[in-house]
User: Fold this.
Amino acid sequence: MKDKKILIVGNAFALAKKISDIAEKVYVAPGIDLMSDFAECVDIREDDATGLLKFVLDNEIDLTIATSQKAIKSDIASVFQANDKLIFAPTEKSASFAISKSLGKRFLYKLHVPTPRFGIFEKLPLSLDYLKDASYPLVVRCDMDNETNDRLCCTSFDQARIFAEELFSQGEVKVVIEEYVYGHEFTLYVVTDGYHAVPFASVANFKFTEDGDGGKITSGVGAYVPDYKVPENILSDVFHKVIVPALNVQQKKDTPYVGILGVDVVLTSPDTYTVLEFKPFLKDFDAQAVLNNIDENLIEVFEACANGFFADEYDDILTNDNFSVSCLVRSRLADKVIPNVELADSDISFINTKCNKYFEYISDVGNNFVLTSCAKTLSRAKAKLKEDLGLVLFDGMKYRKDICN
Assistant:
């Protein structure tokens, strides 16, 4: 029965659309105009916890879901909890290891979890000394995720030096440098109330911008769900030896992590893995693929976590037997018409796309939207996605074509 008013903080297009099917009303702060068919956008910054609390009180919101790092860093969860308003989100303290990559790397080290050799630097000269003696390739990155160029896989000292200098010149307080690890990259997501955790999805990741893992490394440009390449014993090992200990540490510190937690992993052989980092929520490039495979009422799941009833009501999360594959579409050019969007069978999650006065979809430079196709087999899902990517082809369009192969 649709009797809940839901506020989503962060431009989580795929989640807002899925929640709208089971909610009386969905609000998104700040949202984008292309959500208007299924949600009402609220002109409040995602890090304005006080303003969002006032909106929730004035509009009798039943549940707030914070999906963005900005919202979580503003400690919206603590503000809402102090005012007895239900929220599905970790507090700033409980999520610090998932937001700050330097804290996350130290956290993994303390947990004795296999992770690439790394260094954390607050001064450029010290980072350059490290880079001179390092083994390549390695990854140089910001301490916090951002929507621009926050990391680079470097194959030489000169390349790493230039990027490190660029990051510090932009005002980065900390720079993380770690060895690049070869293997199959995947994410294991769980949903948790801070005490009890249940696997949510296994996701295969595409992180490089060019076919065959070439070009720049990113947080992700595509994905498929479930990840059939990862053995069950590895998923179980990551869950019990990485995620559960991490949650136990936060619980013992009286900062239980409530929400969706992801861990990025590299399968280095059929029997071994190394852990890269934690994620504080679903990422844009894989959210729709994950949600396509979930058959639970997410409002009930998230409320159970926020209320502390999760362990009593959920031993697992119901999923279907479909495969979903997603592809992030970027653009080199702005103001180009994107054709045939309404003809595509794939789900589309808009990021920076806009509509003009003629109701045409218009591109912007950078990330534009994610297309996600779902089918009973992965090969069929890829074939459908390939067809839809051809339908929406526009000037300046850029995506990884091998995601559909």
